[in-house]
Amino acid sequence: MAQCSGRNRAAVVFAALSASGGAFLAFYICKRVRELRSQKFPDRIANAISNEHLAVLAKSSNVSLRQSAEQMLLDRILEKGSFQEVISGCSSRDENELYRACSVLCVVLKSVNFSIPLPIGQVSHLLTSCLQKSLDRQDHFDVLSKDSVFPVKIQRMTLATICDFMSDSVPNKDVLIGTCPDIISTCIRLVNESSNKEVLRYSVLLLFQFAGLNTFVEGCPLGTTRSVRESGAVPALAKRIITFHREHIMQRITLQTIVILIGSVDDSKPFCSEIATPMVLMPTISSCSSDDVELSFWALALIQDFVIHDLCTDEMTSMSHLVKDFLEILKTREGVFKSFVLKIMSALCLRRVAFLEELSDNKPFLITVCTALKDQNDLVINYAIRFLKVMLQHGPGIIKKLLDLEDNVLLDGLCHVSKEGQKENKLLLTELLTDLVSVEKLVLQIVQGGVMEIVKELARDEDDESLTFFSSAMLMDMAMVSDEIKVEMNNCCVLPTIFRWIQSAKSEKVSVFGAKALVMFHLIDDSMNFTVRSDGHMTHISGSGVELIDSKNFPLKMFRVECLLSQNVCPLCIKIRTSPTSSSEGDVEFSIPALDALKTDNAGDVIIVTISGKCGAQYVRGLSKYINLSIGESDQLSGLAEGDVGVVIAIVGDDGRINTLKVVTATTEVTAEVAIPYMTLFSHRTTKHILPEILAPLSETSEQLQLCCPLERRELEVLKVLLCLEGYMDSFTQSPTSVSNLLSAIVSFTDHSTEDEQRIIESVLGILTVMAVFDSGRDLLISLDTHDHLVAFLSILLETIQQSSESSSNNRNDVFEADQVAVPPNVAAIISSLPPRPQSRAEPRSSLRSSDSTDSAIEDRGRHTSSSISALPVIPEAGSEMAGGDGAGPVHLQSLSSLVDEVIASVTGEARDAAPINEGETLTEAILEAAVICLTKIVSREARNNSAQSRLLLTHLDESGTVLMLWSCLLTVRKKHRNLLLPLVTTMTTISETISLDTNDHHSSVGFDASNATRMLVLSNDHLEILNFNWTFESVRATVSISRDLISSSAPCQPKGWFYQMELVTDGLIQLGWVNDKCVYQPRKGNGVGDDYDSYSIDGIRKKKWHGPVATQTEGNGYGETWNAGDIVTCLFDRHGSISYLLNDKDLGIAFSGVDMDQRWFPACSVCTDQRARFNFGNDPIRFAESIPDGFVPIADASSDGSRHQQPHSKQQETSALEAERKDPEKEELSGVAGGACDRPNRRGERLPVQGAPIVPSSPPSLYFEVYVRPYTPRPLRVGFSIIDAKDRITVMISNNAIMLPDRSRKQLPVQPLAVVGCGYVAATHSVFFTIDGEVVELLFSFSHTTKSRPVTPCLSSRRTRVNWGQEEFKYKMTDVEEYMNGAISHCQRSSSLCQPVRG
User: Fold this and answer.
1) Is the dihedral of CA 791, 797, 800, 802 positive or negative?
2) Strands 1017-1019 and 1104-1106
3) b vs e for 495-521, b when ≥16 Cβ sit within 10 Å of the residue's Cβ?
4) How many CB atoms lie within 10 A of CB 452?
């Protein structure tokens, strides 16, 4: 009713107003009343509250009230007019007004319940603008606030709002950077200048977000990360590390931002250098051990960057708590932290040796690192290995400390890696082990510590060739150190692993390494010892690596030991058919199944038998069925009484029979000891497990096998290594069929042979070469006409090489023409660095590379004189003009070596030997080298025999044109294959010795003693140059020695010492020094000069000196400097027993002192694979003579009276010798040294002198060679040319510093240390001419016209002559050397084709 009455009243009022004319006003009032009635009561209350009151409420401590007030204010602010005022206020120049507007804006933006009525870009611009204005108040405001912290408030509000507004929103960040790129520089400025921690926090947080964003937008084209970095954020943030030292979150963010920025650039060192200060380092180091793991992580990351760039390392290493903190991290933290610590410590140890040495005494730290090798995290294992590798680089002392750690923790951890580690970590492990075993003195301890388990574990991974390769190479290196180490390795049963490598390794090199190690084990100068003790009840068997105690009470007990294959002693089961009794005297019948099944494969097994009492004696007859007991041994065992004990020790032979080694009987208790040589055991095992697989196919005689070799290359290479043992060689040569099958590969060779066939041929040639150094093998080869097969093979091979050279030279006529090489103005630029050097004595380290080639690329370094050539002038090409100034272009010459030769000769007046050049060896050239070396060994060994059969062989080779064929080969490969030249020259000179003189074969000049050289070494004809082509460590000594006998107090002039020189042709492992008569070389063990107590040596590759067994040396034997190809090493021995060395002109100091002068000391040298050197004992001009101390004389001058061995003949003696030659031509003819050939004898039958025609040859000769003659040589020398298979020859005789020509005229040789006599043949006129020191003797001496169609070959009277067949530059200057070379090759080929080899 009340409601109705109200409505009626309103209607009445409306009617009254309408009547009075106020109808419009009445309508408005009515509408307003309706609105008020419809509005909710809370809204009416809210509208009634003023903004000022709301502002007060917004500061209330009541959260709900405060949030409601803020919400109401936001509603009113977001009204269109109000928010526009806020936007305008943000641009005000009144600081107070801007503060209010900025405050409102920040409140609005921080609210999560309202959508912003502005684009994000505009909002970003407003906030950034307010922030920038707060920094430069004077420039942006007309009215400043009286409140001094007003700018800080604005900065705090805007930064907080930006952080909240942009948090976790990549689009918002992109808009902010694109719209306001200056925000980055503004934040950096705040970090640099602000002292308010809130401002700093927000600024750092913004930089952190920008650094990790790395967005490329329109306003930031370089990317946010780069912009932050290049704007100077890194040093700005670094200053704040100390500020946030106690605030873990902010310090973590600061460090993380720095690390991100530094890590975003390739070269971070400039940035790290800028911030690496103690003020940054100290808090960062402290944070590494923080409980906040994220802070610790980023602190370690920054420290790692510092250490990598060698920054603040001194400060770090001086911190006493550093190692302690890091040790705690290694013990307690997760894998990533351990990795950081190990990486940092590795770098610190690498940078600071003193810190490393201090750390090496910290056993807890080292033990913890070794324990980390068993970590579950592979990255931790990786860096633990790297840390240990760094430690190992600093000497054997530290390695010793690591090995001495308790519980063998190092090798135990490495063994875990070999079993459980990833492939990468296993590869790192092999590198670490290589460093570990490089300390020879510690190898024994390493082997005893269990390294063989690691080797065997790595070898089991047959799918990974690299692991098996390194494990096999490492085993060979360890085996090379000493016999004691090899014994320990055998105790670890390494033989099955070696057999597996040889038989089934995927890599051929692994099989070869296994074979080489097997050879070394054969040569152990020790025995495997067994001791058996028995009292009839208990049997105790002990020996090398084996142990067994058997307490069974039985009258007959048998045991089997698989020597070298297992450490187990296996009791054998005995099946008894009739039981023994003490009263019965009958024999006991029994069987032993294990022995019944015995095969020849069991050769080398040891059988041990114990027999006790009278009952045991009843087993003897049955035992004889299994063991070869002699009658005496059988009676001894059958006579056992009650209580007696007998022991039999036997071995299984190659035929499968068991042969007794020892039989011992005693009363109550017996002890039997036996020592079986390792050579015997290894021979048994190898003969039955390895050789049958190789030799069985070779022994076949089917027609099919005659067409090709039945073996693979791997098997051939293994056989080549094993045949180095004389026992296997003797067995092999008992089967001519096997050798014939090998030769079939050579006979079947054609220029169409496949690569695999050629590789097999190379291996076959290697086997034949090894055979050639043994008497039995060489005799068999000669009987099979191997030399003829080789000559025919070389002819085909040479033709293939020449055709290949012609096709690769773009149809050029000159196959020797070098490419046009741009030579820089400085000649020293030609002299480049040399390749990696081998570390192993018996195998160069180059074998660890994947390439099959073991040749190194060698370049001559030009250090042959004491004059410097570092600034020599450029020699222009003929016809060209030299441009002036440093900017002159390069000059093109035909070869680098000729340039160096020409320049050195022009400056010093001294010629240089040809530089060794190796431009990469092809497979065909490798085969050529193997064939030549094989022929060289056959020829040189036969020449030394000097028997009728040997002379017949050499004559046959000469008449078959072998010299001409080899001459063609030499001229073809003279530039590309320098190591091949020495065997070629040696063979040619040896075969050319076809003139006999009535003088003994003694050669008076000092050189190397061929009878003392090891088998595989190649000696030059003058015995002054050596080359090793084999895998062994070959050695030789000189023919002259020094001792106390040379020192005489009565002599008026005594030398202070003696010396000799070595010129390095290659730069590999060579040991140079002195040996006495007791020194024994062991090339197959890798022992040479300096590796025992009877020799001294140094080597410039490892920069060490050697005296004594390798295993006893390591510490304190560093010496000298690295030497290179072309260097001259002078070895000096003074009269007081001190040995010193010079490298070129530099004194390396005393290497040894107190040498026993009562011994005779010979110059000696040992060379590794493919190494070559030439020596000067005083026969040739001395290099760097001015650097040699006064009073020292060449070793060639050493004799009892201190003078040279051979004094010059007097003038009268010299004249008498020549007159005798003139007066007695019959003697000449009878002795085979006729002055020359003539058309016919005179009426009395006398040989007439050959008359020379006064004609100088105008064109290059068809053939030309030179011989080097030393003055006053007492032994006459004949050189010249002869008609093959005829007596006609034209020669000159050189004796006593004079030369007698074919017409009996006499020429005096120049008085100089070395004269050169040349011999040339002109095919066009069928005549010979001669030169003396390059000057032509202007006479031509012609052969008979009846022999014009016959081939001409060189002839000599002594193979101990140094001959230049074209391998070096001739003294005789021809008009066109290349034209001669081409013509000589063609002439040799034509002439050799006319020669018919005579078989048999």
Assistant:
1) negative
2) unpaired
3) bbbbbbbbeebebbbbbbbbbbbbbbb
4) 21
Q: Indicate the pLDDT class of residue 1193, thresholds 50, 70 and 90.
A: very high
Token representation of residue 113: 């319940």
Place of tokens 């007309």: 142
List, in sequence order, every beta strand (DSSP E) within 551-684.
Answer: 556-561, 569-571, 575-576, 590-591, 606-612, 627-628, 644-652, 658-667, 670-677
Does residue 210 contact residue 228 with C-beta atoms inside 8 Å? yes
Let me know: does 492 contact 452? Beta carbons within 8 Å: yes
Tell me the three state secondary structure of residue 446: helix
What DSSP element (H or E) covers 722? helix 713-722
The residues, any chain, with a CB within 8 Å of residue 932's CB and separated by 6 or more, are 794, 966, 969, 980, 983, 984, 987
Amino acid at 396: P
Element (H, E) at 934: helix 923-945
Contacts of 1050 (CB under 8 A, 6+ apart): none
pLDDT digits (tens, 9 = 90+) for 141-173: 555 555 567 778 878 888 887 787 666 566 766
Element (H, E) at 1307: strand 1306-1308
Q: Residue 156 has which token pair? A: 């705090």
- CB within 8 A of 1217, min separation 6: which ones? 1209, 1276, 1295, 1296
Q: For the stretch 1364-1379, what's the b/e string if a residue is b when 16 or more beta carbons lie within 10 angstroms of its beta carbon?
A: bbbbebbbbebeebbe
Q: At what angle do helices 248-263 and 278-288 cross, to 10 degrees?
A: 110
Mode of pairing for the β-strands spanning 1146-1152 and 1139-1143: antiparallel
Q: Tokens in use for 677?
A: 């040589």
Secondary structure of residue 1365 in the 3-state scheme: coil
| Contact call for residues 1186 and 1071 (beta carbons, < 8 A) | no
The mean-pLDDT minimum among 528-537, 919-928, 1060-1069, 1191-1200 falls in 919-928
Instruction: Identify the H or E element spanning 1099.
Output: strand 1095-1099
Tokens of 1049: 């107090």
Residue 687 pLDDT greater than 80, yes or no:
yes
Are 1053 and 1182 contacting, i.e. CB atoms less than 8 angstroms apart?
no
pLDDT digits (tens, 9 = 90+) for 952-1002: 888 888 888 899 999 999 998 888 787 888 999 999 999 998 887 654 544
What's the rounded Cα separation, in Å, for the pair 112 and 1204? 109
Q: What is the Cα–Cα distance from 1368 to 1366, expressed in whole angstroms?
A: 5
Between CA 954 and CA 240 the distance in angstroms is: 90
Nearest C-alpha neighbor of 847 from the set 717, 723, 755: 717
Return the pLDDT at 112. 52
Kindly report the backbone phi and psi dihedral angles of residue 573, in degrees, each rounded to the nearest multiple of 5, phi listed first.
Answer: -75, 130
Biggest CA pair distance of the chain? 187
The whole-angstrom separation of Cα 1399 and Cα 1320 is 31
Cα 665 to Cα 292: distance, rounded to the nearest angstrom? 77
Provide the 10 A C-beta neighbour count for residue 1317.
23
Measured from the Cβ of residue 702, the count of other Cβ atoms closer than 10 Å reads: 9
Query: Could you tell me the CA-to-CA distances from 48 to 54, 67, 72, 533 in Å, in that order?
Result: 11, 18, 12, 117
One-letter amino acid of 978: R
* Range 676-699 burial, b when 16+ CB lie within 10 A, else e: bebbbbbbbbbbbbbbeebbebbe
Evaluate whether 981 touches 932 at the Cβ level (below 8 Å): no
Task: Give strand pairing partners of 346.
Answer: none
- For residue 1371 the two structure tokens come to 């003294």
Distances in whole angstroms, Cα of residue 1257 to Cα of each of 964, 1323, 1327, 1340 = 22, 11, 10, 8
Distance, CA of 106 to CA of 118 (rounded, Å): 13
Specify burial of residue 799 (Cβ count, 10 A radius: 0-12, 13-18, 19+). Answer: middle
CA pair distance 917, 931, nearest whole angstrom: 21
Would you give the end-to-end CA distance of the chain in angstroms? 154
Sheet harboring 658-667: ordered strands across?
569-571, 556-561, 606-612, 644-652, 658-667, 627-628
